[in-house]
Amino acid sequence: MAADVAKRAKAMRLAQNLSQRSMAERSGVSQASLKRFEHTGEIAFASLLKVAVVLGCMDDFGALFAPRVVVSIDEIAKKRRVRGRG
Length: 86
What we know:
86 residues; mainly alpha; 434 Repressor (Amino-terminal Domain); 5 helices
């Protein structure tokens, strides 16, 4: 998954016509860290957030670890199965 995220980030960087150097300057993340991220997928979370800000992707983190609706077994058992005919 980390490699896929890095690949997409690199594609977005290139689509915005940003070099690694300009991305480093805008984000405050070192060029070496960006290069390592794009090749291995490894990056500190704080640095990933900085890159996301520059790429305009901060909203994508909104769903990360969002609370989920928990359904109990009793609630599932109460639901009746409806079959359609036709």
